[in-house]
Amino acid sequence: LLRLAAHPVAALAAVRKLALHRPRRQGTVRRFLESQTGYDWMMAVASPYEGALALARARTGARRAVWCMDPYANDHPNDPTPAREQALWAAMDKIFVTERMHAALEEPDCVLGAFRGKTRVLEFPSLTPPPAASRAEKADDTLECLFAGSLYPALRTPHFALALFSAMNLPGVRLAFVGPGWENYPADTPAAARKQLGERLRIQGPVSPAEAAARVGAADVLVHLGNDNNDQVPSKLYEYFAAGKPVLALLKRRDDPAREALARWPLACVVYEDEGTGPQVCARVAEFLQTKGRDRLPWQEAERLFWANTPAAVAQALADGLQTEEIQ
């Protein structure tokens, strides 16, 4: 490994990345963009931000736009200064951001506030009809509460879900996890819950997108685990809405940006981690599972409630945003 790190090619790559902040892929993308002609707009979708940084430096006659799906700080956590992000925004003619990022531009200490006039809110095009293949059936009558997605060391964790379902200990109710991330925790993390729940706790690692969709289609209740930041609403939540299923949302933060969407979903139960797992919380969740756990809403209702998150609505908003002039 030391010999590899000392190789001249590796050393050059390190200089490009660490000293010059110009990884090779940025240069490749920039040269490609400069070779393209006849375009009115060029738009980079970030994160990751390498394409956007390349577009900012490209010599092209087209106007520039960037769609910031994640904050720059999330994509470059080791970049302590806002200078690169400010330079990126200054180079753009139009900037599309999430609702939360747009609101943050009005905060007094926001270094990007000066660029608010050329920003527009653009939702994620996450709401699409579930594939027909996902409309599967479970093998038993157990009420399955499924989390399908990735877990992280601190951002999104399973601990509260394990504690809540252990405290409820409801016969005929199963908690299931599908997706990567369990390697981030000690191997005995689910041990106490497994001792209490037995076969009513199922943990499965990464699966194919088709299998994940089938599991979502077969589940009765979909479990949403809130993130430990308030940057944006996870796109996974709209996949849950599209499935028409009840959603049990376990949120870490009182300012979780998913609150508004969850408030609009008729089949939602929200629990904050700081509420704990006492008798009142357990009774509220148990009642939700008993009365709403097998309810369904048609796709058309999800489409009506969250039209702004459909690909058609986002495409129109993008076209409109490119055509409008900067707000002074």
Features:
disordered N terminus, six-stranded parallel sheet, alpha/beta, four-stranded parallel sheet, 15 helices, 328 residues
What would your notes on this structure say?
This protein is an alpha/beta fold. 40% of the residues lie in helices and 15% in strands. It has 15 helices and 10 strands. It has a 6-stranded parallel beta sheet with strand order 7-6-5-8-9-10, sandwiched between helices. A 4-stranded parallel beta sheet has the order 1-2-3-4, sandwiched between helices. Helix 8 (159-168) packs parallel to helix 9 (191-197). The longest helix has 14 residues, at 279-292. The model is unreliable at 1-21 (pLDDT under 50).
